[in-house]
Design brief:
The chain has 37 helices and 18 strands. With 724 residues, the protein is α/β, with parallel strands linked by helices. It has 3 domains: 118 residues, no CATH class; 253 residues, Rossmann fold; 261 residues, no CATH class. Helix 3 packs across helix 12, helix 9 crosses helix 10 and helix 26 packs across helix 37. A 6-stranded parallel sheet has the order 1-10-7-4-2-3, sandwiched between helices. Strands 8-5-6-9 form a 4-stranded mixed sheet, with helices on both faces.
Amino acid sequence: MQDAKNLKEYRKEMQESLDNTFLRQTLDTFAVAYRAGRAKAFAEIDVGGLVAEIAAAKDGVLPRLMELYDQFRRNAEAAGVKVHFARDADEANAIIAGIAQETGSKKIVKSKSMTAEETLLNHTLEDHGLEVTETDLGEWIIQLRHEGPSHMVMPAIHLSRYQIGDLFSDVTGAHQEPDIEKLVKVARRELRSKFAEADMGVTGANFAIAETGTIGLVTNEGNARLVTTLPRVHVALLGIDKLVPSLTDALRILKVLPRNATGQHITSYVTWITGANECAAASDRKKEIHFVILDNGRLEMARDPLFSQVFRCVRCGACANVCPVYRLVGGHKMGHIYIGAIGLILTYFFHGPDKAKNLVQNCINCEACKDICAGGIDLPRLIKQIHVRIQDQQGHPLPSLLLGQVMKNRKLFHTLLRTAKWAQRPVAGDDGFMRHLPMMFFKDHDFKALPAVADQPFRDRFPGLQQETAQRQGPVPRVKAALFSGCVQDFVYPEQMEAAYRLFADHRVAMSFPMAQSCCGLPLQMMGEAKTSREVAIQNIRAFERENVDYVVTLCASCASHLKHNYPVLLGDDPGMQAKARAFAAKVIDFSSFAHDVLGLKAADFAGDGKAATFHAPCHLCRGLGVHDAPRALLRDAGLDYREADESEVCCGFGGTFSAKFPELSAELLRKKLDHVEATGAGLLLTDCPGCIMQLRGGLKKRGSDIVVQHTAEALAARKKTTL
């Protein structure tokens, strides 16, 4: 009950952000511009190769992390720097406060340190009676507002120039015009004296180079150079994850960091600091430099076989830039201190499960963060594993426990789905939708119509389809395939499977359908029920292991991605079952890839009608499986007037259980998607995922739209020529 109450309160916070029109417009504008800028910045670079190099280099650091720390410490101290190691945030803050006391520092200026945000350093310093001033424009603004950053790179992106104008008017005691250039001049004027008066400068660091004891800072404002040079004391606070062996390793990361963060080839300032002599101020005072290296849960991550990949993070913030949920609610709701997908993970290790438990549920699992990560981190998988760990530690919610118990018992699960056909009759319409919902339970879900369970599931239709085509197929098939339906296409949309069956039969595909198959288990994975998800995976593998086929074809991109990528991972602790999972996963293929790449369907196979059509790319198709061209090529070859929609590869907001937990966010993502679809003027909307169809078709039904939503298989089957 407490978890449900907490989630309800969290949803109220989400709604506050949704009601902030400026925030949503700003993040929308940035998201669109960012994609274009990043693509341009990486135009002549092998992004995949560069990411793989960074991942390999970062992974190579882990076995000798403390060895590199000792090397860094020795070289830094040889250059006149005092190096400290802090086990946690409190110890780091105490060290820095102690340095201020020992050096007689009263006024402190800061620049570019998310690690200082992590430790809440300012609070500690202010509690010691010290004056602390953030000098980077965005950080200064949020300091004046007494709030945290809403993005790791652009901390004040959530604020308008009007809000900042009002803030600066209060600070200066004079009216300030909401003109950006003038506001920057106001900030510069107010901050200049702080640099000159400061006793201590505090920064973070992007790199700590072991072979020379050097730190590197990557910034777009010159303030970091003033902070590190003008005050007589400089303290750099950085996580132990910033250690790299050499300058070459740092430059490799520098090649990707600005491009991935903001779409720049290089930032305005890249500063390297080696020892006190290089940072001597223009005075007779001796320069004192301290490097504070922070653990705070990082070493625990480094030892973890799964979470050690977090050390690949370069803190570019790109995972927030492409996250559809961040785009709706901003960083103050999509993170604790660290923002975006990486923030959901770091919150657990740095600030504990209570701060993370609601955040990790807000991941829609669209894989946009994984697709863009400069270190190749499997962010969605780690987020879901955090969810699992929290539930294992604090208890599993009753709804997910009950669902798990039902889904692992295939016969019980399918019996309940068959029973639903009769139970829904009082509320089911003739158009395949529920006429109305029991609103006392689903009042927040009224943004889309929900489908009714089909009268006859695909598994009951399959024997008849086999008999119908047996005499027409001929003795020698081109290819053998087993069909995986998943629960939605089996019991809700069997016509999609039937369309694919007829299309494949006309191209001499011998098909089987193991009756012991069940749901792929992805909904359980999304709900943090890893143990039950594993049991379901074993059931499905065993259902297919006797099938002598070349391919396992599924019409659900989410199922395909889960079967292909997650099954071997789920069964990693059992070598025998993992080998079977890998063999099974190797045969899994999505519908469009099978039709286009394996069967080679082309224009001559179809009788097109020129109907205007557009395509929504399911997240697990375009990112999970890396399939982009096949479905679009098929639609063009089928004789459709294909029209690409804006942001066709952005999530539609379904996300399985996400749309049930966060209907407000799901509704807004759906609204954007349907606006883009309608702008194409297409009368036919196609996709390769039954979940997306449920979302899109239900939303268009509520709009009263005439646009027809179909699976790609249905569109192709309706236009096929018989080839036998």
